[in-house]
Design a protein that fits this description.
Shape: globular
Distance between the termini: 50 Å
Structural class: mainly beta
Number of helices: 2
Radius of gyration: 23 Å
Order of helices and strands: EEEEEEEEEEEEEEEEEHEEEEEEEHEEE
Strand content: over 45%
Largest sheet: 4 strands, antiparallel
Length: about 325
């Protein structure tokens, strides 16, 4: 992804023969050419990790031919701060994990005027040890587990809010929240009081029939995709106050996904939809318009229709199993059949 303040450059991953091992090339989005002069470039295929720090620095994890570069799983074990124009093998090691880790990495995240530096050791498929600090180089590193974050919880941020997606029950602000909740806490509050003492905003809590499927972030909005009895509903929230900004009232039978065009500077997002009777369609939406913007979204492209659906209908019904469980199911049929 292009870095803030240098949106003309990005890194492209190329996979020789379609393998997991990749090469990295720096690409200029203006000239539409690969960069040659003092470019960030890795020609030897490996299961590498790269993340922009600034326009002339990258956090790099790769097999550079040195003992201890990779974990026993074959992924990076060390993080180097690679400066433009220098040999990556000579870049200083700023963080490293253990041989038994799955992978190790570091990155800088930026959102709405706030930047954080993260380090992590992935210890299993669903668990990670993580450290966090504000990206100014002077703040003390905070171990998230020592602040009360479970190793299996996903953590990101919008502005100064940390966003938590737990895979198991979690104690925040004197209350236990269920796995699958989506929670927000202020970074400074957590640092000063720990997760158990921090004030929490519950953005979503699951029920027996609802679950959170995904979250997309634009410049000023959070877009939550919620599944309700296998139907989807989009929730639009203010990215700072978390007030509702025009969410859908009822779920719909469809596949739908949202992805920001540029979460730093824009509220535009790519909207992908499909139904049992309509082909996959790509549109450009404005998150500030909320659910009303779904119908106003600009059409970009669609797959061709492979059958005539004009005489068909799709709907949802429910059945009850022998143990009393209600099971939703879909029916696609000729109208009136």
């Amino acid at each position: 992804r292009p870095i803030k303040g240098s949106v003309t450059r990005t890194l492209i991953s190329l996979s020789p023969g379609g393998s997991d091992a990749i090469v990295r090339r720096e690409f200029d989005l203006v000239t539409k050419r690969f960069v040659n002069d003092k470019a960030f470039r890795l020609d030897d295929p490996s299961k590498s990790r790269c993340s922009w720090v600034d326009k002339d620095t990258i956090f790099l994890g790769a097999d550079l031919g040195q003992e201890g570069d990779m974990t026993s799983s074959g992924y990076p074990r060390r993080v180097r701060a690679w400066k433009r124009g220098l040999d990556p093998a000579e870049a200083p090691i700023v963080f490293e994990g253990e041989d038994g880790d799955v992978s190790v990495g570091a990155y800088v995240s930026r959102s709405r005027g706030h930047a954080f530096e993260w380090r992590y050791r992935t210890t299993s498929f669903y668990t990670s040890k993580r450290w966090l600090r504000r990206y100014d180089g002077n703040e003390t590193w905070r171990a998230l587990d020592e602040l009360g974050f479970p190793d299996d919880a996903s953590v990101s941020h919008t502005g100064s809010w940390l966003l938590i997606d737990p895979r198991s029950p979690i104690d925040v602000g004197g209350r236990t929240y269920a796995a699958g909740s989506y929670l927000a806490v202020q970074y400074d509050d957590v640092v000063n009081n720990g997760l158990k003492g921090a004030k929490c905003r519950a953005l979503f809590e699951p029920t027996p029939t609802t679950s959170l499927a995904s979250v997309s972030t634009t410049k000023d909005r959070l877009i939550l995709k919620v599944l309700d009895n296998v139907q989807s509903r989009l929730i639009f929230l203010d990215a700072e106050t978390f007030e509702d900004r025009g969410s859908e009232k009822t779920p719909a039978i469809r596949g739908i996904s949202c992805s920001a065009v540029d979460a730093d500077d824009s509220n535009d997002y790519f909207l992908r939809t499909s139904t049992f009777l309509e082909p996959s369609t790509l549109k450009l939406g404005d998150a500030t318009q909320g659910a009303a913007g779904l119908e106003r979204a600009e059409f970009l492209k669609a797959l061709p229709a492979f059958f005539d659906s004009s005489g068909m209908e799709a709907f949802q019904s429910k059945a009850t199993s022998k143990d009393g469980t209600t099971i939703p199911y879909f029916v696609i049929r000729t109208k009136g059949a």
